[in-house]
Amino acid sequence: MSSAATRPADPDDLWSVDEHLDDILATVRPLEPIELQLLDAQGCVLVESVTVPVSLPPFDNSSMDGYAVRVADVAGASEEFPAALEVVGDVAAGAADPVRVGPGQAARIMTGAPLPPGAEAVVPVEWTDGGLGEGPASGMRARSLAPEGAEGQVHVYRPVEARAHVRAEGDDVRAGELALEAGTVLGAPQIALLAAIGRGTVRVRPRPRVVVLSTGSELVQPGEELAPGQIYDSNSFALTAAARDAGAIAYRVGAVADDAETLRTTIEDQLIRADLMVTTGGVSVGAYDVVKEALSSVGDEDEAGSGVEFRRLAMQPGKPQGFGTIGPDHTPLLALPGNPVSSYVSFELFVRPAIRALMGLTTLHRPRTRATLKADAALRSPRGRRQFLRGRYADGEVTPVGGAGSHLIAALAKADALIVVPEDTESVEPGGEVEVVLLG
Question: What separation, in Å, do the N-terminal and C-terminal C-alpha atoms of the chain show?
Fold first, then answer.
Protein backbone atom coordinates (compact mmCIF):
# COMPACT_ATOMS: atom_id res chain seq x y z
CA MET A 1 0.00 0.00 0.00
CA SER A 2 1.14 3.54 -0.59
CA SER A 3 2.20 5.79 2.28
CA ALA A 4 -1.40 6.96 2.56
CA ALA A 5 -2.28 3.79 4.45
CA THR A 6 -0.61 5.24 7.56
CA ARG A 7 -2.43 8.56 7.42
CA PRO A 8 -4.12 9.03 10.83
CA ALA A 9 -7.57 10.05 9.69
CA ASP A 10 -11.10 8.78 9.64
CA PRO A 11 -11.74 6.94 6.32
CA ASP A 12 -14.69 9.25 5.76
CA ASP A 13 -12.59 12.39 6.12
CA LEU A 14 -11.82 14.45 3.04
CA TRP A 15 -8.24 14.54 1.89
CA SER A 16 -6.80 17.87 0.85
CA VAL A 17 -5.36 18.33 -2.63
CA ASP A 18 -1.91 18.76 -1.13
CA GLU A 19 -2.14 15.61 1.02
CA HIS A 20 -3.11 13.49 -1.97
CA LEU A 21 -0.34 14.98 -4.13
CA ASP A 22 2.26 14.55 -1.38
CA ASP A 23 1.33 10.88 -1.06
CA ILE A 24 1.73 10.36 -4.81
CA LEU A 25 5.12 12.08 -4.95
CA ALA A 26 6.34 10.20 -1.86
CA THR A 27 5.58 6.92 -3.64
CA VAL A 28 6.76 7.64 -7.21
CA ARG A 29 10.49 7.30 -7.77
CA PRO A 30 12.54 8.32 -10.82
CA LEU A 31 13.11 5.55 -13.35
CA GLU A 32 16.51 3.86 -13.45
CA PRO A 33 18.97 5.40 -15.93
CA ILE A 34 19.77 3.65 -19.19
CA GLU A 35 22.14 4.28 -22.11
CA LEU A 36 20.33 5.37 -25.27
CA GLN A 37 21.18 6.34 -28.82
CA LEU A 38 20.86 10.08 -29.39
CA LEU A 39 17.51 10.13 -31.18
CA ASP A 40 16.05 7.62 -28.73
CA ALA A 41 17.07 9.98 -25.92
CA GLN A 42 14.99 12.89 -27.23
CA GLY A 43 12.81 14.22 -24.41
CA CYS A 44 14.77 12.33 -21.75
CA VAL A 45 16.66 13.77 -18.78
CA LEU A 46 20.44 13.56 -18.78
CA VAL A 47 21.74 11.89 -15.60
CA GLU A 48 25.42 12.79 -15.92
CA SER A 49 27.16 15.93 -17.08
CA VAL A 50 28.88 15.79 -20.48
CA THR A 51 32.20 17.48 -21.17
CA VAL A 52 33.54 18.44 -24.57
CA PRO A 53 36.16 15.98 -25.91
CA VAL A 54 36.85 17.95 -29.11
CA SER A 55 36.74 21.71 -29.58
CA LEU A 56 34.05 23.20 -31.77
CA PRO A 57 35.02 24.07 -34.43
CA PRO A 58 37.90 21.56 -34.28
CA PHE A 59 39.99 23.74 -36.62
CA ASP A 60 40.06 27.26 -38.09
CA ASN A 61 37.62 27.32 -40.99
CA SER A 62 35.99 29.69 -43.42
CA SER A 63 32.61 31.25 -42.72
CA MET A 64 32.23 32.32 -46.36
CA ASP A 65 32.69 31.08 -49.90
CA GLY A 66 35.63 33.06 -51.23
CA TYR A 67 39.42 33.15 -51.31
CA ALA A 68 41.91 32.47 -48.54
CA VAL A 69 44.60 35.19 -48.68
CA ARG A 70 47.48 36.85 -46.87
CA VAL A 71 46.43 40.24 -45.43
CA ALA A 72 49.46 42.08 -46.86
CA ASP A 73 48.64 40.91 -50.37
CA VAL A 74 45.25 42.69 -50.44
CA ALA A 75 46.13 45.82 -48.45
CA GLY A 76 44.88 48.87 -50.31
CA ALA A 77 42.90 46.83 -52.87
CA SER A 78 40.02 48.64 -54.58
CA GLU A 79 37.81 48.28 -57.64
CA GLU A 80 40.03 50.77 -59.46
CA PHE A 81 43.25 49.08 -58.36
CA PRO A 82 42.45 45.46 -57.51
CA ALA A 83 45.00 43.09 -56.09
CA ALA A 84 45.85 40.34 -58.57
CA LEU A 85 46.66 37.02 -56.88
CA GLU A 86 47.69 33.65 -58.26
CA VAL A 87 45.07 30.97 -57.49
CA VAL A 88 46.91 27.87 -56.33
CA GLY A 89 43.98 25.51 -55.81
CA ASP A 90 40.70 24.69 -54.10
CA VAL A 91 40.03 24.06 -50.41
CA ALA A 92 36.72 22.25 -49.97
CA ALA A 93 34.93 21.29 -46.77
CA GLY A 94 36.43 18.05 -45.55
CA ALA A 95 39.79 18.68 -47.17
CA ALA A 96 42.46 16.78 -45.25
CA ASP A 97 45.58 18.25 -46.89
CA PRO A 98 44.86 21.80 -48.07
CA VAL A 99 47.20 23.72 -50.34
CA ARG A 100 49.63 26.24 -48.89
CA VAL A 101 49.11 29.96 -49.61
CA GLY A 102 52.35 31.88 -50.19
CA PRO A 103 53.05 35.55 -50.95
CA GLY A 104 50.94 36.82 -53.86
CA GLN A 105 48.78 33.70 -53.80
CA ALA A 106 45.18 32.79 -52.92
CA ALA A 107 43.21 29.55 -52.58
CA ARG A 108 39.56 29.27 -53.55
CA ILE A 109 37.81 28.18 -50.33
CA MET A 110 34.33 26.96 -49.46
CA THR A 111 32.26 27.60 -46.32
CA GLY A 112 33.37 25.23 -43.54
CA ALA A 113 36.66 24.33 -45.23
CA PRO A 114 39.86 24.53 -43.12
CA LEU A 115 41.90 27.70 -43.45
CA PRO A 116 44.96 26.62 -45.45
CA PRO A 117 48.51 27.10 -44.14
CA GLY A 118 49.88 30.56 -44.89
CA ALA A 119 46.45 32.20 -45.21
CA GLU A 120 45.39 34.80 -42.66
CA ALA A 121 41.85 35.72 -43.75
CA VAL A 122 39.09 34.99 -46.23
CA VAL A 123 37.87 37.41 -48.88
CA PRO A 124 34.19 36.80 -49.77
CA VAL A 125 33.76 35.88 -53.44
CA GLU A 126 31.53 38.95 -53.88
CA TRP A 127 34.62 41.11 -53.23
CA THR A 128 36.41 39.48 -56.18
CA ASP A 129 35.92 38.76 -59.87
CA GLY A 130 35.67 35.04 -59.10
CA GLY A 131 38.78 34.43 -61.18
CA LEU A 132 36.87 35.18 -64.35
CA GLY A 133 38.20 38.67 -65.08
CA GLU A 134 34.68 40.00 -65.57
CA GLY A 135 34.32 42.40 -62.63
CA PRO A 136 32.72 41.75 -59.22
CA ALA A 137 31.25 38.26 -58.97
CA SER A 138 27.92 37.36 -57.40
CA GLY A 139 28.97 33.82 -56.54
CA MET A 140 31.19 30.94 -57.46
CA ARG A 141 30.74 28.76 -60.47
CA ALA A 142 30.48 25.06 -59.73
CA ARG A 143 33.85 23.34 -59.96
CA SER A 144 32.45 20.88 -62.50
CA LEU A 145 31.43 23.78 -64.74
CA ALA A 146 34.54 25.89 -64.24
CA PRO A 147 37.53 23.76 -63.18
CA GLU A 148 39.79 26.61 -64.18
CA GLY A 149 38.34 28.61 -61.25
CA ALA A 150 40.92 26.93 -59.00
CA GLU A 151 43.84 28.22 -61.01
CA GLY A 152 44.89 31.30 -62.92
CA GLN A 153 44.32 34.70 -61.33
CA VAL A 154 41.73 36.32 -59.11
CA HIS A 155 41.22 40.06 -58.69
CA VAL A 156 40.38 41.25 -55.17
CA TYR A 157 38.59 44.59 -54.86
CA ARG A 158 38.63 45.14 -51.09
CA PRO A 159 41.19 44.68 -48.29
CA VAL A 160 40.55 42.46 -45.25
CA GLU A 161 41.82 42.38 -41.69
CA ALA A 162 43.53 39.38 -40.16
CA ARG A 163 41.09 36.56 -39.24
CA ALA A 164 38.27 38.16 -41.24
CA HIS A 165 35.55 35.60 -42.09
CA VAL A 166 37.39 32.88 -40.17
CA ARG A 167 35.73 30.74 -37.51
CA ALA A 168 38.41 30.12 -34.92
CA GLU A 169 39.10 26.69 -33.44
CA GLY A 170 37.15 26.40 -30.18
CA ASP A 171 35.11 29.52 -30.94
CA ASP A 172 31.93 27.64 -29.88
CA VAL A 173 33.24 25.42 -27.07
CA ARG A 174 36.70 24.18 -26.15
CA ALA A 175 37.80 20.68 -25.27
CA GLY A 176 37.35 20.05 -21.55
CA GLU A 177 34.52 22.56 -21.11
CA LEU A 178 31.07 21.55 -19.85
CA ALA A 179 28.71 20.77 -22.71
CA LEU A 180 25.51 19.83 -20.85
CA GLU A 181 24.71 19.57 -17.15
CA ALA A 182 23.06 16.58 -15.52
CA GLY A 183 19.31 17.24 -15.34
CA THR A 184 19.10 18.74 -18.83
CA VAL A 185 16.09 17.70 -20.90
CA LEU A 186 17.36 16.67 -24.31
CA GLY A 187 15.67 18.56 -27.11
CA ALA A 188 16.82 19.08 -30.68
CA PRO A 189 19.52 21.70 -29.89
CA GLN A 190 21.00 19.56 -27.11
CA ILE A 191 21.05 16.49 -29.34
CA ALA A 192 22.74 18.57 -32.04
CA LEU A 193 25.48 19.55 -29.57
CA LEU A 194 25.99 15.97 -28.44
CA ALA A 195 26.31 14.82 -32.03
CA ALA A 196 28.69 17.70 -32.85
CA ILE A 197 31.08 16.67 -30.06
CA GLY A 198 30.97 13.05 -31.18
CA ARG A 199 28.67 11.48 -28.59
CA GLY A 200 26.64 8.63 -30.09
CA THR A 201 24.91 7.60 -26.86
CA VAL A 202 24.03 9.24 -23.55
CA ARG A 203 22.95 8.04 -20.12
CA VAL A 204 19.45 9.27 -19.34
CA ARG A 205 16.33 8.51 -17.40
CA PRO A 206 13.92 7.12 -20.01
CA ARG A 207 10.59 8.69 -20.78
CA PRO A 208 8.01 6.87 -18.65
CA ARG A 209 5.54 4.55 -20.34
CA VAL A 210 2.02 5.55 -19.35
CA VAL A 211 -1.00 3.37 -20.08
CA VAL A 212 -4.34 5.18 -20.17
CA LEU A 213 -7.68 3.38 -20.13
CA SER A 214 -11.23 4.58 -19.64
CA THR A 215 -14.14 2.59 -18.27
CA GLY A 216 -17.83 2.63 -19.08
CA SER A 217 -20.22 0.47 -21.09
CA GLU A 218 -21.66 3.64 -22.57
CA LEU A 219 -18.39 4.62 -24.28
CA VAL A 220 -17.96 4.28 -28.04
CA GLN A 221 -14.84 4.73 -30.15
CA PRO A 222 -14.93 8.01 -32.17
CA GLY A 223 -15.88 7.30 -35.76
CA GLU A 224 -18.40 4.61 -34.87
CA GLU A 225 -22.18 5.00 -34.80
CA LEU A 226 -23.79 5.97 -31.49
CA ALA A 227 -26.63 3.84 -30.16
CA PRO A 228 -29.20 5.28 -27.72
CA GLY A 229 -27.58 6.02 -24.37
CA GLN A 230 -24.03 5.95 -25.71
CA ILE A 231 -21.39 8.69 -25.85
CA TYR A 232 -17.99 8.93 -27.47
CA ASP A 233 -14.91 8.14 -25.39
CA SER A 234 -13.01 11.42 -25.08
CA ASN A 235 -11.20 10.93 -21.77
CA SER A 236 -8.72 8.34 -22.97
CA PHE A 237 -7.78 10.56 -25.91
CA ALA A 238 -7.42 13.66 -23.72
CA LEU A 239 -5.33 11.94 -21.07
CA THR A 240 -3.10 10.14 -23.57
CA ALA A 241 -2.41 13.45 -25.31
CA ALA A 242 -1.79 15.13 -21.93
CA ALA A 243 0.62 12.36 -20.91
CA ARG A 244 2.60 12.84 -24.13
CA ASP A 245 2.63 16.59 -23.56
CA ALA A 246 4.08 15.95 -20.10
CA GLY A 247 6.94 13.98 -21.67
CA ALA A 248 5.71 10.38 -21.46
CA ILE A 249 5.42 7.63 -24.02
CA ALA A 250 1.67 7.09 -23.73
CA TYR A 251 -0.47 4.17 -24.81
CA ARG A 252 -4.22 4.49 -25.12
CA VAL A 253 -6.36 1.44 -24.40
CA GLY A 254 -9.89 1.26 -25.83
CA ALA A 255 -12.74 1.82 -23.39
CA VAL A 256 -13.47 -1.14 -21.12
CA ALA A 257 -17.07 -2.12 -20.31
CA ASP A 258 -18.43 -2.01 -16.76
CA ASP A 259 -17.32 -5.52 -15.90
CA ALA A 260 -14.84 -6.02 -13.06
CA GLU A 261 -13.31 -9.21 -14.44
CA THR A 262 -12.78 -7.71 -17.91
CA LEU A 263 -11.24 -4.60 -16.41
CA ARG A 264 -9.01 -6.64 -14.09
CA THR A 265 -7.75 -8.76 -16.98
CA THR A 266 -7.13 -5.70 -19.14
CA ILE A 267 -5.12 -3.95 -16.43
CA GLU A 268 -3.05 -7.07 -15.74
CA ASP A 269 -2.32 -7.44 -19.47
CA GLN A 270 -1.17 -3.82 -19.69
CA LEU A 271 1.15 -3.90 -16.67
CA ILE A 272 3.99 -5.32 -18.74
CA ARG A 273 4.38 -2.07 -20.67
CA ALA A 274 3.52 0.42 -17.93
CA ASP A 275 5.68 2.53 -15.64
CA LEU A 276 2.46 4.29 -14.63
CA MET A 277 -1.19 3.43 -15.18
CA VAL A 278 -4.07 5.89 -15.37
CA THR A 279 -7.73 4.90 -15.32
CA THR A 280 -10.67 7.22 -15.74
CA GLY A 281 -14.21 6.52 -14.55
CA GLY A 282 -15.70 4.06 -12.10
CA VAL A 283 -14.33 5.54 -8.87
CA SER A 284 -17.52 6.95 -7.32
CA VAL A 285 -20.11 5.08 -5.27
CA GLY A 286 -22.53 3.93 -7.99
CA ALA A 287 -23.59 0.33 -8.51
CA TYR A 288 -21.58 0.16 -11.76
CA ASP A 289 -18.41 1.87 -10.57
CA VAL A 290 -16.28 -1.22 -11.07
CA VAL A 291 -12.75 0.18 -10.82
CA LYS A 292 -12.71 -0.29 -7.05
CA GLU A 293 -13.88 -3.87 -7.39
CA ALA A 294 -11.43 -4.69 -10.18
CA LEU A 295 -8.41 -3.14 -8.48
CA SER A 296 -9.01 -5.02 -5.25
CA SER A 297 -7.28 -8.08 -6.72
CA VAL A 298 -5.12 -6.93 -9.64
CA GLY A 299 -1.73 -8.61 -10.06
CA ASP A 300 -0.05 -10.56 -7.30
CA GLU A 301 -2.25 -10.22 -4.22
CA ASP A 302 0.57 -11.55 -2.03
CA GLU A 303 2.85 -8.67 -2.91
CA ALA A 304 3.40 -6.72 0.30
CA GLY A 305 2.75 -3.02 -0.05
CA SER A 306 0.55 -3.24 -3.14
CA GLY A 307 -2.96 -1.91 -3.38
CA VAL A 308 -5.02 1.08 -4.43
CA GLU A 309 -6.79 3.30 -1.94
CA PHE A 310 -9.87 5.29 -2.93
CA ARG A 311 -10.40 8.70 -1.40
CA ARG A 312 -12.59 11.75 -1.39
CA LEU A 313 -10.73 15.00 -1.91
CA ALA A 314 -11.71 18.47 -0.82
CA MET A 315 -11.72 19.77 -4.37
CA GLN A 316 -14.14 20.59 -7.16
CA PRO A 317 -14.18 19.10 -9.72
CA GLY A 318 -12.48 15.78 -8.98
CA LYS A 319 -13.66 14.73 -5.54
CA PRO A 320 -13.33 10.92 -6.02
CA GLN A 321 -9.73 9.77 -6.56
CA GLY A 322 -7.73 6.58 -6.25
CA PHE A 323 -4.02 5.99 -5.86
CA GLY A 324 -1.68 3.14 -5.05
CA THR A 325 0.60 0.54 -6.57
CA ILE A 326 -0.33 -2.72 -8.27
CA GLY A 327 1.32 -5.87 -9.50
CA PRO A 328 4.66 -7.49 -8.70
CA ASP A 329 6.62 -4.38 -9.73
CA HIS A 330 4.48 -2.06 -7.60
CA THR A 331 3.46 -0.03 -10.65
CA PRO A 332 1.87 3.28 -9.59
CA LEU A 333 -1.78 3.65 -10.60
CA LEU A 334 -3.91 6.78 -10.46
CA ALA A 335 -7.66 6.28 -10.76
CA LEU A 336 -9.36 9.47 -11.92
CA PRO A 337 -13.05 10.36 -12.05
CA GLY A 338 -14.97 9.92 -15.29
CA ASN A 339 -16.41 13.36 -15.95
CA PRO A 340 -14.23 14.93 -18.66
CA VAL A 341 -13.32 18.13 -16.83
CA SER A 342 -12.79 16.30 -13.54
CA SER A 343 -10.54 13.85 -15.32
CA TYR A 344 -8.45 16.51 -17.04
CA VAL A 345 -8.08 18.73 -13.95
CA SER A 346 -7.08 15.67 -11.93
CA PHE A 347 -4.47 14.81 -14.54
CA GLU A 348 -2.92 18.27 -14.39
CA LEU A 349 -2.80 18.29 -10.59
CA PHE A 350 -1.69 14.72 -9.91
CA VAL A 351 -0.68 12.69 -12.97
CA ARG A 352 1.51 15.28 -14.69
CA PRO A 353 3.69 15.76 -11.58
CA ALA A 354 3.96 11.97 -11.22
CA ILE A 355 5.14 11.61 -14.83
CA ARG A 356 7.74 14.32 -14.41
CA ALA A 357 8.92 12.77 -11.13
CA LEU A 358 9.42 9.46 -12.96
CA MET A 359 11.53 11.35 -15.52
CA GLY A 360 13.75 12.70 -12.75
CA LEU A 361 12.79 16.32 -13.35
CA THR A 362 12.86 18.89 -10.55
CA THR A 363 10.19 21.12 -12.10
CA LEU A 364 7.06 19.01 -11.67
CA HIS A 365 4.19 21.48 -11.92
CA ARG A 366 2.67 23.88 -14.39
CA PRO A 367 3.69 27.51 -13.82
CA ARG A 368 1.41 29.58 -11.64
CA THR A 369 0.83 33.31 -11.41
CA ARG A 370 -1.51 35.87 -9.87
CA ALA A 371 -4.12 37.54 -12.06
CA THR A 372 -6.99 39.98 -11.84
CA LEU A 373 -10.40 38.37 -12.27
CA LYS A 374 -12.22 39.76 -15.29
CA ALA A 375 -15.86 38.68 -14.99
CA ASP A 376 -19.43 40.00 -15.11
CA ALA A 377 -20.31 38.49 -11.73
CA ALA A 378 -18.62 37.08 -8.66
CA LEU A 379 -17.26 33.54 -8.71
CA ARG A 380 -18.96 31.27 -6.18
CA SER A 381 -17.23 28.32 -4.57
CA PRO A 382 -18.35 25.83 -1.89
CA ARG A 383 -16.63 26.39 1.42
CA GLY A 384 -14.10 23.73 2.31
CA ARG A 385 -13.42 22.83 -1.34
CA ARG A 386 -10.55 24.02 -3.49
CA GLN A 387 -12.22 24.84 -6.79
CA PHE A 388 -10.55 24.83 -10.19
CA LEU A 389 -12.40 26.81 -12.86
CA ARG A 390 -11.48 27.10 -16.52
CA GLY A 391 -10.26 30.43 -17.76
CA ARG A 392 -8.37 32.38 -20.39
CA TYR A 393 -5.33 34.34 -19.26
CA ALA A 394 -3.83 37.41 -20.96
CA ASP A 395 -1.89 40.45 -19.80
CA GLY A 396 -2.35 39.81 -16.10
CA GLU A 397 -6.09 39.18 -16.34
CA VAL A 398 -8.06 35.94 -16.35
CA THR A 399 -11.59 35.49 -17.70
CA PRO A 400 -13.74 32.48 -16.73
CA VAL A 401 -14.73 30.18 -19.59
CA GLY A 402 -17.96 28.21 -19.28
CA GLY A 403 -19.56 27.22 -16.00
CA ALA A 404 -18.42 25.02 -13.15
CA GLY A 405 -19.96 21.83 -14.58
CA SER A 406 -17.54 18.92 -14.85
CA HIS A 407 -19.01 17.80 -18.21
CA LEU A 408 -18.35 21.00 -20.18
CA ILE A 409 -15.73 19.83 -22.70
CA ALA A 410 -16.28 22.71 -25.13
CA ALA A 411 -15.44 25.23 -22.41
CA LEU A 412 -12.35 23.24 -21.48
CA ALA A 413 -11.16 23.36 -25.09
CA LYS A 414 -11.25 27.17 -24.99
CA ALA A 415 -9.34 27.47 -21.72
CA ASP A 416 -5.61 27.99 -21.30
CA ALA A 417 -5.61 28.34 -17.51
CA LEU A 418 -7.21 27.09 -14.32
CA ILE A 419 -8.54 29.63 -11.84
CA VAL A 420 -7.89 28.44 -8.28
CA VAL A 421 -10.38 29.37 -5.55
CA PRO A 422 -9.03 28.34 -2.12
CA GLU A 423 -10.92 26.19 0.39
CA ASP A 424 -11.67 29.12 2.72
CA THR A 425 -13.02 31.40 -0.05
CA GLU A 426 -16.69 31.30 -1.03
CA SER A 427 -16.74 34.27 -3.39
CA VAL A 428 -14.31 36.19 -5.59
CA GLU A 429 -15.52 39.54 -6.86
CA PRO A 430 -14.66 40.93 -10.30
CA GLY A 431 -11.39 42.82 -10.03
CA GLY A 432 -10.18 40.58 -7.24
CA GLU A 433 -6.86 38.77 -7.39
CA VAL A 434 -6.76 35.01 -7.95
CA GLU A 435 -4.16 32.33 -8.42
CA VAL A 436 -3.93 30.93 -11.94
CA VAL A 437 -2.41 27.68 -13.23
CA LEU A 438 -1.10 28.26 -16.77
CA LEU A 439 -1.86 25.25 -18.97
CA GLY A 440 0.09 26.01 -22.10
Answer: 34
